[in-house]
Amino acid sequence: MSTDDTPTIDQFRPVVLRVLNDGIERSTKQIHDEVADRMQLSESIRAERLNSGQHRYMNRINWALSALTQGGLIVRPKRGHYTISDDGRTVDKRNLAAYSESDMFEWPKWAAYQEEVAERKRSYRSKIKGQEAPESDNLVETIEAGVEEFNAKVETDLRRALQESSPEFFERAVVDLLWAMGYGGAHGEKQHVGRSGDGGIDGIIRQDALGLSSVYIQAKRYADDNVIQRPAIQQFYGALAEKGTERGVFITTSRFTSGAQRLADDNFHGKIILIDGFRLTSLMLHYGVAVQRAKQLTLYEVDADFFDEGLV
Q: Is the pLDDT reported for residue 1 higher than 70?
């Protein structure tokens, strides 16, 4: 038990697996209720809430569900519903009292997930390396670093969610992203095109009312091992030429080979922009696409002007 008497996330994980072990698909609410009953949580524990208003035990079960999903121990067949996997049954047979994130590194999917989170954190740290903050700002800097690290996990979760979505859903999502980034201007329009025989064009952002200036989009919802290579970029350029334009954005949930990136940089001179899964989800967080604000913190400081008696 934690100091607040609510079981820890590590303690919730094996109970979640136990509840799901019968193979029946359950909603998040059903899992909350059954886990709480199986652990015989008291009414006081069930009533305890976080500052956000969410029940503490539900919040921890949700984090348990998230980690188990990313590790491949449970499966999310549809939004807000879960079933157990064969790997999950393997863990459940051990009758564990707790199952930590460190324990989960025995599963390749979890290890790969954590490596991506770590890579995003390293990327953030490299941006601020050498930037010394005044000592008085250390606490603020620590809070900002914590936010960035939290968002690194959100970006990783988001990329996984996009990979699990349908191709059509992904195509619409990237069109929405470019629209949110302002490419439609004040009088433009967006269009999802993706369909058989679309010539490799999945979306169009028309930047003016007459459609004289447009950005064409190709979206590839690929697994990590399906990397975009040079021929795909050449084909996209050919599709753009058929439309009478050279401006396009190629977006994928995976990544581009160095050869594909060089082709876009050296031969098309910025006319074709490549966005991989890392940059994609970073942009989606920045522009608020497919995410919502979880919590807002307010920091205060003394208003020195208030104490300037000469202004009174």
A: no
Residue-range definition of the domain harbouring residue 19: 1-106
CA-CA distance, 14 to 22, in Å (whole number)? 14
Q: Provide the number of structural domains found in the chain.
A: 2
List, for residues 100-138, the tens digit of each pLDDT value. Answer: 999 999 999 999 999 999 998 887 767 655 555 444 457
CATH number of the domain to which 198 belongs: 3.40.1350.10
pLDDT surpasses 70 at 173: yes
pTM attached to this predicted model? 0.76
8 A C-beta contact, residue 149 and residue 121? yes
Q: Is pLDDT above 50 for 199?
A: yes
Torsion angle of C-alpha atoms 71, 167, 257, 275, degrees rounded to 10:
-100
- Report percent pLDDT > 70 for the chain: 91
**β-strands 214-220, 272-275 pairing:** unpaired
Q: Give the three-state DSSP class for 288.
A: coil
Pick from 225, 209, 217: which is nearest to 191 by CA?
217
Those residues with Cβ within 8 angstroms of residue 247's Cβ, 6 or more apart along the chain or in another chain: 214, 215, 216, 240, 271, 272
252 DSSP β-pair partners: 220
Of 69, 88, 106, the residue that ends a domain is 106
Task: Kindly state whether residue 210 falls inside one of the protein's structural domains.
Answer: yes
User: 81 and 174: one domain?
Assistant: no
Structural tokens at position 99? 């199952």
Closest residue by Cα to residue 239 from 279, 274, 272: 272
Provide the sign of the torsion angle of the four alpha carbons 126, 129, 134, 138, taken in this order: positive
Residue 158 three-state SS:
helix
In whole numbers, what is the pLDDT of the chain averaged over residues? 89
Could you tell me the CATH number of the domain that includes residue 92? Answer: 1.10.10.10
Candidates 283, 297, 294; CA nearest to 155 is 283
